Amino acid sequence: MTPQDFDYLRDMLKESSGLILTEEKQYLLECRLMPVAREHGLESLTDLVRVLRDPAESQLSAKVTEAMTINESLFFRDKTPFENFTQLMLPALVASRAPMRKLRIWCAAASTGQEPYSLAITIKENSSKIVGWDIEIIGTDLSSDVLEKAKAGLYSQFEVQRGLPIQFLVKYFNQVGSMWQIDSSIRAMIDYRKFNLLESFEGLGTFDIIFCRNVLIYFDAETKKDIFSRMARQLQPDGYLLLGAAETVIGHSAHFTPAEGVRGVYVKSVKGDDDAKTQPTGIGSTPAAGLSRPTVAAGGSA
Question: Which residue segment(s) compose the domain that 247 sits in?
Answer without folding.
Answer: 80-277
